[in-house]
Structure to design on (427 residues):
């Protein structure tokens, strides 16, 4: 009888505990342990018979064990790419600019150019934001060096040469490039349409494939190398 | 460029000497005329090595001078006096800004929704096409027919005037800094 009484008591306790836990919800005792939590029922951890519950509460961290910080999620850093070596700056690597998937476009350059820097920058910003919104693989967003256009007027019949004419205004052409890779061929016309719709006045948008020429136009002309090469050519010719 | 010129100076008298090097004695035009083959080959090899060494050096970026402000613009005398705006004006301006923000937000939202709809319809159409025939589906996804070297110009503020004769003149385009050898002689 006593055993029956004990068994009934335990069963009742179990069902009531389950009900209460459903009402109260789990009680997370430690902030670091999001997975393991205790279900504190009536201030005690519940035991059915002599077995421990499946989810156990361990406040200890075991810092000397290799399993330390096993469930940690916050404070993680993304793996950084290796830094570019000084020797490799400016080398042309065509494999980087080719499409990885089928029916996807290779690296495209969206070149925004104009004489008004404010509009150029604002439109380049719009193009960049559009690419981000539609989750395109943006390789780089950079500026090309600016070039000048001098508007010259011919005041008299003597000044037939362009060099001798008087300069009226000097305008600088500004260029911004947004480099995008692996764009699916279906989304390209749709994005182009939106860009065409929002292009401001006096600005040209040019879309081109990324070449070695365009790649090298960012870098300085090497005077020494060119001269030495010319001398080498002279030596070859004089043989 | 300074070439290493090795010359042997034979002093004739205290203040004069004759050099026996090939390049100095030959004059301007025939400087490489009478050099023996062996010496030429050695010179070529030296040049090749020098070219290889120089080409291994890393490239330097052209500096972007878009935001360089001339010093004459930074004088204190040129600074503008501060404008005093009444509270009413300020309130009006702030309320206008808020209205503008609301309007642009709405239009941007509509625009992105339209584009998303377009993409969704496109996906659906492609799926239907695939069920019809694989060949057509593959042909639709090709990258060759797209207009890749594409240019588009923005609108112009005013239409061209009728009967307008522009003054005679021209445009002179200069290359960006450091992109070409500026020490070369100009064309006459």
């Amino acid at each position: 009888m006593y055993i029956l009484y004990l068994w009934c008591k335990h069963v009742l306790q179990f069902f009531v505990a389950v009900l209460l836990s459903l009402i109260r919800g789990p009680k997370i005792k430690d902030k670091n342990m999001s997975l393991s939590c205790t279900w504190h029922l009536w201030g005690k951890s519940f035991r059915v018979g002599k077995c421990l519950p499946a989810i156990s509460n361990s406040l200890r961290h075991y810092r000397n064990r290799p399993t330390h910080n096993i469930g940690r999620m916050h404070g993680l850093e993304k793996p950084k790419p290796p830094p570019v070596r000084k020797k490799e700056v400016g080398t042309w690597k065509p494999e980087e600019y080719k499409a990885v998937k089928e029916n996807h476009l290779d690296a495209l350059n969206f070149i925004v150019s104009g004489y008004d820097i404010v509009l150029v920058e604002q439109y380049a910003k719009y193009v960049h934001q559009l690419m981000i919104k539609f989750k395109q693989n943006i390789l780089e967003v950079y500026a090309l060096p600016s070039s000048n256009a001098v508007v010259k007027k011919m005041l008299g019949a003597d000044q037939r040469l362009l060099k001798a004419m008087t300069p009226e205004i000097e305008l600088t052409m500004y260029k911004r490039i947004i480099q995008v890779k692996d764009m699916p061929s279906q989304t390209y016309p749709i994005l182009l349409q939106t860009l065409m719709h929002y292009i401001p006045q006096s600005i040209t948008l040019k879309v081109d494939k990324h070449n070695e020429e365009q790649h090298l136009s960012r870098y300085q002309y090497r005077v020494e190398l060119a001269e030495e090469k010319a001398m080498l050519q002279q030596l070859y010719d004089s043989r | 460029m300074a070439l290493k010129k090795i010359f042997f100076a034979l002093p004739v008298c205290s203040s004069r000497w004759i050099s026996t090097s090939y390049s100095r004695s030959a004059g301007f035009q025939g400087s490489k005329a009478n050099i023996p083959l062996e010496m030429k080959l050695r010179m070529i090899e030296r040049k090749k090595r020098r070219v290889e060494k120089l080409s291994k050096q890393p490239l330097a970026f052209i500096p972007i001078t878009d935001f360089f402000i001339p010093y004459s613009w930074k004088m204190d005398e040129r600074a503008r006096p501060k404008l005093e705006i009444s509270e009413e004006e300020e309130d009006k301006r702030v309320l206008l800004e808020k209205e503008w923000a609301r309007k642009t937000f709405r239009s941007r939202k509509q625009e992105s929704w339209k584009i998303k709809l377009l993409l969704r319809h496109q996906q659906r159409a492609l799926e239907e096409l695939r069920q019809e025939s694989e060949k057509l589906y593959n042909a639709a996804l090709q990258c060759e027919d797209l207009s890749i070297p594409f240019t588009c110009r923005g609108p112009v503020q005013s239409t061209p005037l009728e009967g307008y004769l522009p003054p005679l003149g021209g445009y002179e385009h200069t290359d960006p800094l450091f992109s070409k050898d500026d020490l070369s002689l100009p064309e006459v």
About this structure: The two ends of chain B are 24 Å apart (CA to CA).
